[in-house]
Amino acid sequence: MQDKLSFYIHRDSPLHRLNPLTKLTLTFSLILIGFLGPGYWTATLIFVIILLPLSLWGNISGEFIRTTFRLILPLTVFLFAMQSLFYPGGQTILFRFWIFSIKLEGVQFAYLTASRIMNMVGSFLLLLLSTHPSTLMTALTQRGVSPSLTYIVVSTLQILPQMRNKANTIIDAQRSRGLETQGSLRRRFSALLPLVGPLVFGSLVDVEERAIALEARAFKAKRSKTSLLQIPDPPGQNALRLGLIIVTLLAIGSRFWL
After folding, report:
1. How many CB atoms lie within 10 A of CB 185?
2. Whose CA is closest to 157, among 182, 172, 135?
């Protein structure tokens, strides 16, 4: 079952039962190793050897693969088109057509950038699909993280799902009033303004309502807050987080050393 206000998909899996801080540490470790680690194929290997098996372990592989490629495919096509044609300093020409030439250096740079972006998107998506925002917020708060910072992190992770849910609601409402939102490109473009206006103003109203709700719950109170939800954190996961940090530092250090 998927939460409409987040990417979270409820599954009874070992991945879902991991402490949110462990998954958050894993996410940032994989991203840093993918961007700063040594090797041309590092980001691709992380996605194939680590992210895909973890999505299978969490029973979310279908949603993980589908959402990842839907997010990165347009950007990947644009990267390969632009970099292969206009990469500065490219010398090795693979083939020409008309006034354009495809350069090997541009294709290699486009692949490296696309693989790193895919690794980053996949790492965050694995976290979002297997971790409920409220659970992550509670885990961070219990570790002494500032409530304001915790709220900023969690609300940022919820922006896209909330906007998507609100946009779907507005589209359904406009369709019930007879607005044509499907068909030719011109018809869809003409229906864009009636959709964007309510979406923007509705989001501003949501921000105000959320601020009022936070004040009503004594969000900035100095006293320590209690929670009905206790996040289990076995000692083994503390060691796992420490190991991930060490591996990340070693991977980054090895790149500069080599």
Report:
1. 7
2. 135
